[in-house]
Design goal:
Rossmann fold; about 10% strand; about 475 residues; seven-stranded parallel beta sheet; 2 domains; 16 helices; alpha/beta
Amino acid sequence: MSEPLHIAYVCADRGVPIGGHKGASLHVAELVRALGQRGADVQVLAARVAETGGTTLCGAPVIDVGGGRTARRTRESLLKTQDGALSAAGAAEAAAILFNQELSRALERLHRSWRIDAVYERYSLWSFAASGFARAHGIPHLVEVNAPLPEEQKRYRDLENEALAATLERHLFTSADRLLVPSAALVPYATMRGAEARAVQVVPNAADPARFRPTRRRAAADGQREEFTIGFVGSLKPWHGLDDLARAFRRLHRGWHGYRLLVVGDGPLRAEIEERLRGWGLASAVTFTGPAGHEQVPDWIARMDVALAPYPKDAPTYFSPIKIFEYMAAGVPIVASRVGQIADFLAHRRSALLHKPGAVGEIAACIEELRRRPALGTRLSREARATLVRNYTWKKNAGRVLALVRTVQREIAAGARENGRGVMPPKAAATTPGRTSRKKAARRAAGPSTTGARSTPGRPRKR
């Protein structure tokens, strides 16, 4: 039996804390856990780890590279200068760029004690250390690209060094062996920035059906129910359609006072939405849970009679919303905007009710129909869960990732032979005899910096 692949999962984005409440943090944890279930041995190298749960949520050792003394002091020193030579955004960008030094050292330390067979990286704006490490050691480098990050940074936050961000993005896209994108809408984005079309693979997001146990929906129709709960899971940000959700709920509650709204999550729009609902006299009919841990989400969704994803007209079309997959896994009827990838895996009146983005009247009408026709909701939710189990689970995604790693390993080995180079296939490229335990390897990788590791000659360039 072959030894398990050793995969270093790199998350150099401080905005995606390991063990955090964000959907992106959940994505990391679920894929890492699924890779382990598929037989891989995984260690996570992170720029930031949540205060609670970060080292246990994903079921694999987590090396808090960003929490090390040097990384912390560098970051703190730069942030102190933001009122002088650097803006807050510029200081954060400089810290992220300098973080590559610590990440490179951590990868080398880990490789010496726990030979790395492949690097899987979640794309972040300023990261390039993993790319250099993988090329130096002749091992596969897979990059997961979930969004056009420079564009998002400009639109929703601040981007000081736009030209540098574009340059680093092109470097990453052209040097990676494979780019994994969650939707087809991101394929042209990747190829326009240097990626080879054959290297871009579409791997939609997913859910773990084992975490969600569909509950039997209450079958009583209109006139026999005291309450009917519509729910939303996610961060409370502008592109999630919370304004449309609030207005649809107001319309529904005017028609029947048994409607209840359950909002699972937190974010910058919470105070504004709460104030608006309070002004409409609806505060007693609404529950905001605040930040919800991933382990709590299944129980919250189980309380919903309908689950919503009311993306607005100007919502981006490249996303692959994890909330939708979780709704599908939970067996709850779904009402969602017909936008982006949603219509690719949900069929109107077969597995969900889909509406035009921003159409408040349509949102309310879909929900009202499901309240009045409980049998329809049962049929839709069963088909949605069956679709998810067939096609959209984290374990299936992990299998795709491991297959790609094996393919790239063969390509690297074949390329080395054809070019007469001294690169050995990854299995033969270990720098230390035997393997050490994951805990010992993690301790060494997180320890004080040492001299650089001996490496095999670099692999031949792809072009």
